[in-house]
């Protein structure tokens, strides 16, 4: 495809989820809306490179998709329409389609409806992730399948089932009422964070397809922040993703091996992304006067690291304090482990080690053993450190991660 | 408006036993509060009264009845409500007020509307 074709394809992909969101409301179902939007997208890809991009591409796509939807609805109406009824989405209003393209406000509301429907708690986490990438992110089923390491046929089935549950169980197409909003926003944030971590865990190197999920998650978090610019959870999530993602270039060496935080070349961190992330942390903190939000606090911790000129210059006192705050809203073993690492940096390995060994329930988590190993090494107990590295290596690790731990183990022996 | 069945899964109790009077009162209160959406329902005798029927010889074969419920589980199906709600969110909100929600679990299933 030439440059113009590429630009058009990008534009269509960008606008597609918004157009889809509105079409779902007016057609009353995800499937008819997807058909109509697909048809409109194909026509755009054919005509725009030739005739030029219209002044308002979104309105153009909406009009084209709506026209197609009207055709289909009329045809369906002539048939008994039994199946169509069974597949209708609750809260959407099938029927006469509005004449004028919807205003910005309506597009925003439609997009939010789609966000909350795709991330509804009555859907499995797997289904939420798949639907978010497919309908909100506009990825193809094949792309979603590749990103999540699932065969395409399995992914197609998963997405179909999820859409069927939405229609049959009557998951509504609407923004939750204010009283339910915080809990539901937390659910959406959890799904996007999961998508980010899928890509983040894959790292760079060979696993580029999965790595692209981090960019996708940032894009979705940005979209969400545009829709809910005053929600602390949403701002905290975007900040957290930006600050983690800012380290991407420094996280792997040229051979694709992971480089841990202390050894990363901080000049390779994305300064613009860090600046944006840190500003968002501030904005989010100003909006959480009562109860700390776990995403905002995690973003604040990430900001401490991002702003430190070197690992040794990390403000460990502040990091430990933020972990104390995080524990008040999310008392989980992994949070305790991360806090113990910060305490070790502040007070020395013995203090950190005592905390690590106090945490129960992480025997199956390789990084608990690896952290113990590192602190034992620093405390001058190489024999126990070796044993702990062996325990970590016996657990489930990616190839580069295992390689990293094996090198630490070898260093210990020499 | 879609119709849902809310199945209550709780300890396998005998609702006619006076010791469950207090709990039955809670169900009655629920019935009162949710009467706008309740279209029917029943309490069931315990699984000790259940009979499971199969025709091992296939279609048209003699039914063979065995004592007991279809599946032995820690919590048993002890009743159901037919609910007519605007959507799943409303059905979940209603089910959350059933005593079974804190004494066990409630399963909500949408009903197929054959035209």
UniProtKB/TrEMBL annotation, chain A:
Residue ranges of domain DUF6596 in the record: 184-284
Pfam families in the cross-refs: DUF6596, Sigma70_r2, Sigma70_r4_2
Superkingdom classification of source: Bacteria
Transcription regulation recorded as keyword: yes
NCBIfam families: sigma70-ECF
RNA polymerase sigma factor 70 region 4 type domain sequence ranges: 116-166
Keywords: Sigma factor, Transcription, Transcription regulation
Protein name: Sigma-70 family RNA polymerase sigma factor
Sequence ranges assigned to domain RNA polymerase sigma-70 region in this UniProt record: 11-79
Homology family: Belongs to the sigma-70 factor family. ECF subfamily.
InterPro entries recorded: DUF6596, RNA_pol_sigma-70_dom, RNA_pol_sigma70_r2, RNA_pol_sigma70_r4_t2, RNA_pol_sigma_r2, RNA_pol_sigma_r3/r4-like, TPR-like_helical_dom_sf, WH-like_DNA-bd_sf
UniProtKB/TrEMBL annotation, chain B:
UniProt-listed InterPro entries: Dimeric_a/b-barrel, YCII
Residue intervals of the YCII-related domain: 36-114
Name of the protein this chain belongs to: YCII-related domain-containing protein
Domain of life from the UniProt record: Bacteria
Family that this chain belongs to: Belongs to the YciI family.
Organism: Actinomadura violacea
Matches recorded under Gene3D superfamilies: Dimeric alpha+beta barrel
């Amino acid at each position: 495809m030439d440059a113009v074709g590429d630009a058009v394809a990008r534009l269509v992909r960008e606008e597609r989820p918004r157009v889809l969101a509105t079409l779902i409301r007016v057609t009353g179902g995800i499937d008819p809306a997807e058909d109509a939007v697909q048809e409109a997208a194909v026509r755009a890809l054919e005509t725009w490179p030739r005739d030029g991009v219209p002044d308002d591409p979104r309105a153009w796509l909406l009009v084209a998709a709506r026209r197609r939807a009207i055709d289909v609805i009329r045809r369906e109406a002539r048939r008994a329409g039994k199946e169509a009824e069974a597949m209708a989405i609750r809260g959407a209003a099938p029927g006469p389609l509005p004449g004028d393209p919807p205003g910005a406000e309506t597009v925003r509301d439609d997009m939010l409806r789609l966000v909350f429907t795709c991330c509804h708690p009555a859907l499995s986490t797997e289904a939420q992730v798949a639907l978010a990438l497919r309908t909100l992110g506009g990825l193809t089923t094949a792309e979603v399948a590749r990103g999540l390491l699932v065969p395409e046929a399995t992914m197609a089935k998963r997405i179909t089932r999820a859409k069927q549950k939405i229609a049959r169980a009557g998951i509504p197409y609407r923004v939750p009422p204010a009283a339910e909003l915080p809990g539901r926003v937390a659910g959406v944030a959890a799904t996007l964070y999961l998508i980010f971590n899928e890509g983040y865990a894959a790292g760079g190197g060979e696993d580029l397809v999965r790595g692209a999920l981090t960019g996708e998650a940032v894009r979705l978090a940005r979209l969400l922040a545009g829709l809910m610019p005053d929600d602390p959870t949403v701002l905290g999530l975007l900040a957290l993703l930006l600050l983690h993602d800012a380290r991407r270039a420094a996280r792997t060496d040229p051979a694709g091996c992971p480089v841990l935080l202390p050894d990363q070349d901080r000049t390779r961190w994305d300064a613009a992304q860090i600046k944006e992330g840190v500003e968002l942390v501030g904005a989010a903190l100003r909006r959480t006067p009562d109860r700390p939000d776990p995403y905002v606090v995690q973003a604040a911790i990430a900001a401490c690291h991002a702003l430190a000129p070197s690992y040794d210059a990390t403000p460990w006192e502040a990091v430990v304090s933020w972990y104390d705050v995080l524990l008040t809203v999310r008392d989980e073993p992994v949070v305790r482990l991360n806090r113990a690492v910060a305490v070790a940096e502040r007070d020395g390995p013995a203090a950190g080690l005592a905390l690590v060994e106090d945490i129960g329930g992480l025997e199956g988590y390789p990084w608990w053993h690896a952290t113990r190993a590192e602190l034992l090494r620093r405390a001058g107990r190489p024999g126990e450190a070796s044993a702990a590295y062996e325990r970590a290596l016996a657990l489930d690790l990616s190839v580069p991660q295992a390689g990293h731990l094996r090198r630490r183990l070898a260093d210990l022996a020499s | 408006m879609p119709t849902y069945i809310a199945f209550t899964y709780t300890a396998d109790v005998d609702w006619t036993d006076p010791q469950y009077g207090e709990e039955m009162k809670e169900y009655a209160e629920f019935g009162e509060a949710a009467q706008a959406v309740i279209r029917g329902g029943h309490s069931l005798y315990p699984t000790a009264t259940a009979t499971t029927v199969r025709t091992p010889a296939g279609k048209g074969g003699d039914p063979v009845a065995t004592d007991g419920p279809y599946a032995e589980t820690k919590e048993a199906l002890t009743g159901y409500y037919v609910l007519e709600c605007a959507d799943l969110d409303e059905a979940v909100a209603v089910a959350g007020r059933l005593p079974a929600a804190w004494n066990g679990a409630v399963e909500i299933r949408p009903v197929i509307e054959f035209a």
